[in-house]
Amino acid sequence: VQLQASGxxxxxxxxxxxxxxxxxxxTFYAIGWFxxxxxxxxxxxxxIRWSGGNTGYAESVKGRFTISRDNAKNTVYLEMNSLKPEDxxxxxxxxxxxxxxLYNYWGQGTQVTVSS
Length: 116
What we know:
mainly beta, seven-stranded mixed beta sheet, four-stranded antiparallel beta sheet
């Protein structure tokens, strides 16, 4: 099983970035994005069910971030708009195999830095 996250970078406040998570090795129930800022605990950002496409978001990103999937490419995207300096963090994608919110597989992180 492999989860490959990419797309991070440096952007000014108000800008946009799109993260990608390429999944392989097995089928998943859902894939989510998490982030961890320096000195803070890892927090949930968004997730999407692989079948049906149901989505969930943290309150802090609702209306600014959009999670989507491309089944043919086995890839999940996180479109991030109206970025704020407080969105600066390492972003991780993770996958779970059941409806229980326990993520079994994790990818490496990708750094997102938002300058003010």
